[in-house]
Amino acid sequence: MPDRAPQPVDRQLPTDEARDLISLVRDIAQREVAPAAAEEEDAGRFPRELFTLLSESGLLGLPYDAEYGGGDQPYEVYLQVLEELAMARLTVGLGVSVHTLASYALAAYGTKEQQAENLPAMLGGGLLGAYCLSEPASGSDAASLRTRAVRDGDHWVITGTKAWITHGGIADFYTVMARTGEEGPRGITAFLVPGDAEGLSAAAPEKKMGMKGSPTAQVHLDGVRVPDSRRLGEEGQGFAIALSALDGGRLGIAACAVGLAQAALDEALRYAAERRQFGRPIADFQGLRFMLADMATQIEAGRALYLAAARLRDAGRPFAKQAAMAKLHCTDTAMRVTTDAVQILGGYGYTADFPAERYLREAKVLQIVEGTNQIQRMVIARHLAGPESR
Q1: I need a surface site. Which of 133, 247, 276, 288 has the fewest CB within 10 A?
Q2: Distance in angstroms (rounded) separating the CA atoms of residues 330 and 317
Q3: Residues of the chain above pLDDT 90, percent
Q4: Element (H, E) at 364
C-alpha cells in the first residue's frame, strides 16, 4: 500500500548547501551502497572502492576546514550524513565515523605544518584512517595502556599491540596513543603512524557476530620508528586528545545507531504493509501498530538527542555529558528497535532472506564500541554527581 511505504527522514537542515549535501548522500547510498550491502556483509568484503568514491565526493572530511580539503560542515550536518550512510550499510557509516575520529588529533592538535603536509590526503585524497587506543588488556581502562614510545634522537620507537581496531590492516594511517612517560593518563602521547611503516602489521581480522564487512583486527607495532614531526600535540597530552576525540566519536556512533534503527523500522513497515493474515495487512493489528509507534518514537528521541549535543559542539559549548547520553540512548534504541523488527517479521525475520536479522546482529556492537554503555553511564553520573569517592 503506497500510503504506508516508508518515507525519507524529514530533516531540519540549517542551509541550502546542507540540503543539497543530504540529497547527494541519499543518491550515493541508494545507488552505490545499499544494493550490495547484504551480499558483501555475508561475504565479509570491505567496500574500499566505496570509500574512494566517498573521498572523491568530499564526504570523508565534512567537519574539517576547507583549507585542507574538508567540508567546513557543522557537526549537526555531518552526523546526519552518517545516519543516511548507516541506513544503507552500517559498515560504511561507521567507517566514515572512524576515519573522522582518526583524523581528529591532527586536525585539532597538529601544527600548521603538520596539517598542511598530511590533512589534504587524509580528508580528500583517498586515504583511510584508523584510531588506536584500546589494547588487549586495556579497553574501558584506556589510561592503563602499555604500548610504549621511546625517544631516539629526533625519532620515536613504538612497540606494543593495539586491539579491536576498525580498519586494522587496511588503513593508510593510524592515530596511535602510546606511553612516553609515567603510568596513568599523563604519560600518554599521540602519534600519526603511516600504514606502511616498517614494523607495523595486523593480525587476521576478528570473526564477529555482525559487521563482517568491516575489518576489526589487532595492530602490532614492533619497533616502529616515527619522526618527532609526527607527534601530535605535546608529550603527555595524548590521553586528553583521545578523550576529546571520543566525545565527537560517540556522537558518530549515536548517529549510526539511529540510521540502523531507522533502516530496521523501514523494513518492518514495508513487511507489515505487505504481509496479510486473517484477510488483512498485519499493519492493521493494534498490537503491532503499537510496536511500530514505540520504535518510531524511540528513533525520533535519539535523533533529537544527538542533534542537540551536536549543536552544543558547534556552538563551542561543553557537550561531553550530552555525547555520552546520546551514545547510550541511541545504541540501546538500536538494539530494541532491531529486536522488535525481527519480531514483526516473525519467522522470516530470523532468516537471512531479509535484512532484519543482520540489523539485529550489527546493533549489538554499537553498545560496546567507543566506550561501552556502562562507561557512558559512569561519564553521565560524574557530570551529575561528581567523581566517585576513593
Answers
A1: 276
A2: 21
A3: 96
A4: helix 356-366
Distance CA 162, CA 181 (A): 18
For 135, residues 6+ apart whose C-beta sits below 8 A from its C-beta are 145, 146, 147, 160, 161, 162, 163
Close Cβ partners of 370 (under 8 Å, ≥ 6 residues apart): 101, 246, 249, 250, 252, 253, 327
Beta partners for 190? 177, 232
Q: Please, what is the average pLDDT of the chain? A: 96
SS3 313: helix
Q: Crossing angle of helices 238-274/286-314, nearest 10°?
A: 150
**pLDDT for 6 beyond 90:** no
- With CA atoms as reference, report the closest residue to 210 among 141, 170, 256: 256
Q: How far apart are CA 148 and CA 248, in angstroms?
A: 26
Cell of 329: 540512548
Cβ–Cβ under 8 Å, residues 369 and 91: no
Span 229-284, pLDDT tens digits: 999 999 999 999 999 999 999 999 999 999 999 999 999 999 999 999 999 999 99
- Contact 149/160 with Cβ under 8 angstroms? no
> Is the pLDDT assigned to residue 386 strictly greater than 50?
yes
Could you confirm whether 370 is annotated as catalytic? yes
Is 152 in a helix, a strand, or coil?
strand
How many alpha carbons fall within 13 Å on the CB side of residue 246?
22
- Exposure pattern of 245-267 as b/e (b: 16+ CB <10 Å)? bbbbbbbbbbbbbbbbbbbbbbb
Q: Which amino acid is at 71?
A: G
CA distance to 156, 193, 231, per residue, from 228 (Å)? 6, 11, 5
Distances, alpha carbon 111 to alpha carbons 105, 118, 190, 249, in Å: 11, 11, 13, 22
The catalytic residue among 135, 267, 362, 370 is 370
> Among positive and negative, which fits the CA dihedral 277, 291, 337, 308?
positive
Number of alpha helices (DSSP H) and beta strands (DSSP E) in the chain: 11, 10
Contacts of 182 (CB under 8 A, 6+ apart): none
